[in-house]
Design goal:
The structure is a homotrimer. Chain A has about 160 residues and is an alpha+beta fold. Chain A has a single domain, classed as 60s Ribosomal Protein L30, Chain: A (2-Layer Sandwich). In chain A, about 30% of the residues lie in helices and about 25% in strands. In chain A, strand 5, helix 3 and strand 6 form a beta-alpha-beta unit. In chain A, helix 2 crosses helix 3. The longest helix of chain A has 23 residues. The first copy, chain A, is globular, with a radius of gyration of 15 Å. Chains in contact: A-B, A-C, B-C. The interface between A and B is medium-sized, with 35 and 26 residues.
């Protein structure tokens, strides 16, 4: 099933990257009980933020959508780094999406659909989640999107 | 007790609506273990956002308060849709409030008291919760307020 | 171990304050199962917000760092008020940081390192956490930083 997830990621033209480092004095992901939460993921590839600026002005909504996809990809990388295998992911519970928004931009839901659709495309029913979507004025490293992901994993008792 | 909750809602002049649909590719509420979290609820009635614009400029703080109440009402609708009965709600744990704020507006706590007071009015002690309150510059659909709610519910073991 | 935490706080030149009151109609901290979450903590000392304004303009990034430390200190006060003893804190899971940001300010991670480093300095490995870091345009009471903290505590079963 895990290979299935990675093969679906590949079919969408992506590759699961190494889990990005934290941008500060914190850890990128933590497991407690049978829950996982990631730190806020930025649209980082190979150490660089690849989508910067305010959506709706400096960059287009469709680029925001692409940025949100990369954030979701990075969140999956964190989750895999944490539990080793996507088989153990029972459900993506929640994503918290922050969209770096130009004045008057109200398309935060469309931007974050980039992440939401990606998670369902690669995880199926297990990828369905709740969501918050807010527009923020400033963002670390001028990133276009930030995304934190909560997931439920199989009980430790079911580890093999 | 559940009818009691709905009768208290009625006394405040409201009616529990059908749980609003998600505004994007996500689900409006999820249960995991004995926790529930809703997606960000907007001040939607019958499919329309009824309070739009920046609080402190385009709309008054008291309208923001009213908007927050409707967000809380919608969150209760999501919770009921998820667990079927308010009897199963043990505690509202947390609300995350985002207030669409005009430059210089610092009354986010007063606005969100609309949600906080409503939850305690209808759920009593079970409605008491922690809160985050931030001012944001842009909001999906130009909504005045967005509210996500976490609740603890009775263990599945106590289901009848 | 708890005295050790408070003595480390003292070595950094701070003293654990009484847990600050809520700034509105909510509670400052809640425990559910073996988790705790605090409400958004502001840089309050003795009832006053001591760092106000937008970081990167009205106040300097280093003052934002100091503000974030006080938010973390207040969060620890809430956690102690909730569980009585830092011995019971198993892990700081997550901090949610909101930085009141001037236009163009992108140093939210540096500001929030004030909280992150403080938590690790006083709690060691148990203080390591995930983080979200966003820039917001307006803040309750004009505070420079707001910080909510999630922690995992020992199971009630281990209570003595």
């Amino acid at each position: 099933m895990s290979n299935e997830v990675e093969s679906k990621i590949a079919k969408l033209g992506f590759e699961l990257p190494p889990a990005p480092d934290a941008v500060g004095f914190y850890v990128p992901v933590v497991k407690f009980g049978n829950l996982i939460v990631t730190s806020g993921q930025l649209p980082i590839r190979s150490g660089n933020v690849v989508f910067t600026g305010k959506v709706g002005d400096e960059i287009h909504e469709t680029e925001g959508y692409d940025a949100a996809r990369i954030c979701a990809l990075n969140a999956l990388a964190q989750i895999k780094a944490c539990v080793g295998d996507f088989d153990r992911v029972k459900q993506i519970i929640r994503i918290e999406g922050y969209v770096h928004s130009a004045p008057g931009f109200q398309g935060q839901p469309s931007v974050l659909n980039g992440a939401s659709e990606f998670l369902v495309e690669v995880l199926g029913e297990r990828g369905k989640h709740t969501r918050t979507a807010v527009g923020v004025c400033e963002m670390p490293l001028n990133a276009a999107v930030q995304l934190a992901v909560w997931a439920e994993v199989e009980d430790a008792g079911s580890e093999t």
